[in-house]
Amino acid sequence: MTGIITGALAFLTGEAAARRGDARVLRLSVAFVAASGFLGLHALATPGVLLSGKNAGFQVASAIGLLLASPLAAWSALETDGPAASLLGRRSVLYGALGTLMVLWAAVSLATLPPLDQPIDDPGPLLLGIFAAGALLYGLAAAGYIRLYRRRPRPLLIAAVGAFVLLAEAMLAIGLGRNWHATWWEWHLLMLVAFGLVARGAWKEWQAEGSPDEIFSDVYEERTRGHREDVSVFFADLQGFTAFSERTPEDEVRAMLDTYFSSATPIVERYGGVRPQTIGDALMVVFREEGHELRAGRFALEFQAGMSSLADQHPGWPRFRVGINSGDALVGLIDARGARSFTATGDTVNLASRLEGQARAGEVVIAAATYEGLVGKALVEELEPLEVKGKAERVQAYVLRSLDA
Predict the structure, then answer these.
(1) Which of 18, 39, 48, 318 is spaced 20 to 30 A from 84 at the CA atom?
(2) Which residue, of 203, 220, 237, is where some domain finishes?
């Protein structure tokens, strides 16, 4: 049961780290992978599962998993400076290294090779010192999350504090036992309660938010929760949607929107856009990191081609118009309890929305800032400077016709 809970936490935190680019959640994910993986190896030590007798390899596996997780837990309590791209870009290496270590550990244990061939009846001073170091690291993790809780008094953070305290106790229970099995039930129970606390906190967040997307948002680093970043923002809505919805049964309108938006999601993922946000008939997608202008432009053209094809199959359906702008925006979490979302805000976003309103059905209108990122690759039609709401001066814009392959 403990292994299943920890494995689920490893998966969910890994998904959150990849989706939001958060280094703290990634460290927690790797820690959960270490704990769950080695706990699974420990389960194989049960006599009659793989071996008739016991050996140290399987016997101490869960303790080793906890030990490997302890520095990651302590590290996750720290706030890193600057982007976490370097660490996140190596997440496959981190997971791969852990997986390789587990495979090697299992192979040596199954082959009953030294030094993992003989069962351990007493940890001895060396293991005692190692496990004491693990307990200290979990204590540091708990202290770090207490500081974080003081800034953000949220249930998931206090659950993490309790979990790290219990894991520190588990490490001490392993190391201080006179006989290796004297405290077997104690430290297994401590692990179960520790990871159960975090799982319960995550489940409560899931229930409150209605989805797993932001259940670890209380743990995010400050940079993830809000920072300024150069992005491209895509806006689309359906021209003539209001008139269409007035003359069309509600279930048909809903079916149309479901068809359009479900068809758009795979295209968003292909071009690396942040999870799309929908408001009524409108769609917003943010493109981050290097080359965001080009990816946003390619996405927009493929989006319009795909949506036009759907509209051709359903005569009378309204068609999308699209606007794109690039520039500095505040990217982060809108922390509204029960309706948390990760989005971009600011003048760059507002202008993208205004340009979408200037486009005709089937068109992609881009701002001058976006065009600058596409020079030499884009075929455009220059528009007369546009008057847009919120801007004192006219805005230069272009209709994007095509992009070089």
Answers:
(1) 39
(2) 220
Asked whether residue 275 falls in the same domain as residue 188, the answer is no
Residue 330, strand partner residues? 228, 345
CA distance 53 to 31: 29
Which residue is listed with tokens 């192979």? 107
Q: Which amino acid is at 273?
A: G
Our count of domains for the chain comes to 2
E strand residue ranges, 75-208: none
214 lies in the same domain as 330: no
256 and 340, same domain (yes or no): yes
Pair 64, 184 in one domain: yes
User: What are the two backbone dihedrals, phi and then psi, of residue 185, each rounded to the nearest 5 degrees?
Assistant: -70, -35
* Rg of the Cα atoms in the chain: 27
3-state class (DSSP) for residue 274 = coil
Q: What is the rounded CA–CA span in Å between residue 129 and residue 398?
A: 67
Asked if 234 and 176 sit in the same domain, the reply is no
Give the domain CATH number at 239: 3.30.70.1230
Cβ contact 367:376 at 8 Å = no
Instruction: At 63, give phi and psi (nearest 5°).
Output: -65, -40
- Please state the pTM of the whole predicted model: 0.73
Q: Give pLDDT tens digits along the chain (405 positions).
A: 777 888 888 888 888 887 787 888 888 998 988 888 888 777 776 656 565 666 666 667 778 888 899 999 999 988 765 544 456 667 778 888 888 888 887 777 777 666 655 656 666 666 677 788 888 999 999 999 999 999 889 889 999 999 999 998 888 877 665 444 445 556 678 888 888 889 888 888 888 877 777 888 888 888 888 888 899 999 999 999 999 999 999 999 999 999 999 999 899 989 988 878 888 899 999 998 889 999 999 999 999 999 999 999 999 999 999 999 999 999 887 776 666 777 888 899 999 999 999 999 999 999 999 999 998 888 999 998 888 887 778 899 999 999 986
Q: Are residues 280 and 314 in the same domain?
A: yes
Distance separating alpha carbons of residues 25 and 17, to the nearest angstrom = 5
Q: Which residues contact 402 (CB under 8 A, 6 or more apart)?
A: 301, 378, 379
